[in-house]
Amino acid sequence: TNLKGAWTVAQESARRMVAAGQGGSLVNVTSILASRVAGAVGPYLAAKAGLAHLTRAMALELARHGIRVNALAPGYVMTDLNEAFLASDAGQRLRSRIPSRRYSQPADLDGALLLLASDAGRGMSGSEIVVDGGHLCSSL
Q1: What average pLDDT does the structure give for the chain?
Q2: Ramachandran quadrant class, 59 (left: phi over 0; alpha: psi -120 to 50; beta: rest)
Q3: What is the C-alpha to C-alpha distance for residues 68 and 58, in angstroms, rounded to an integer?
Q4: Which helix (H) or strand (E) holds 26?
Q5: What backbone phi and psi angles, to 5 degrees, belong to 62?
Q6: 58 with 11: CB under 8 angstroms?
Q7: What angle do CA 123, 47, 125 make, to 5 degrees?
Q8: CA-to-CA distance for 114 and 129, rounded, in angstroms?
Q9: Rounded (to 5) percent helix, strand, coil in the chain
Q10: What average pLDDT does range 34-63 have in this prediction?
Q11: Which ranges constitute the DSSP H helices of the chain?
Q12: Which residues are catalytic?
């Protein structure tokens, strides 16, 4: 789902943009784990790293059609799916390693997503914006 699903949606979206002749913007959602290794999630890491590279490849291939392709790389975002883990002792230890000492909320991704999807980001293609409270710049 993390790689093939994103590929399938992006391909169909690009086909429709090309057919309309108007270009557009595609935004893939990768993860900070595309750039960092963690235990027990190898397939997820590989899929997100693949999606980050696929984003750059698609940016190159679709540029001639006026289609920009970028990625949003969130850190740990509090959702219904992971709330119990992030509230656990292990989750609290993880949070202590994030420089901002907080997990992101879904709304924290809005600004970066709007930049990548709108004309405000018209000069960006093949880029990845990290929204992680400084997690990637911290030490392991």
Answers
A1: 96
A2: alpha
A3: 8
A4: strand 24-29
A5: -100, -5
A6: no
A7: 5
A8: 11
A9: 55, 15, 30
A10: 96
A11: 4-20, 42-62, 83-87, 89-96, 110-117
A12: 31, 44, 48
111 closest CA partner among 137, 123, 129, 127: 129
Domains and CATH numbers, the chain: 4-135 (3.40.50.720)
Q: State how far the Cα of 83 lies from the Cα of 80, in Å rounded to an integer.
A: 5
| pLDDT surpasses 60 at 140 | no
**What's the pLDDT tens digit per position in 63-113?**
999 999 999 999 999 999 999 999 999 999 999 999 999 999 999 999 999
Structure tokens at 38: 């963690």
- The encoded tokens of residue 138 equal 């911290």
Q: What tokens does 107 get?
A: 């709304």
Q: Would you state the pLDDT for residue 68?
A: 98
* Both tokens assigned to 51: 């999606």
- Residue 138: the pLDDT is 86
Rg (the chain; Cα; Å)? 16
Residue pair 125/71 in contact (Cβ under 8 Å)? The answer is no
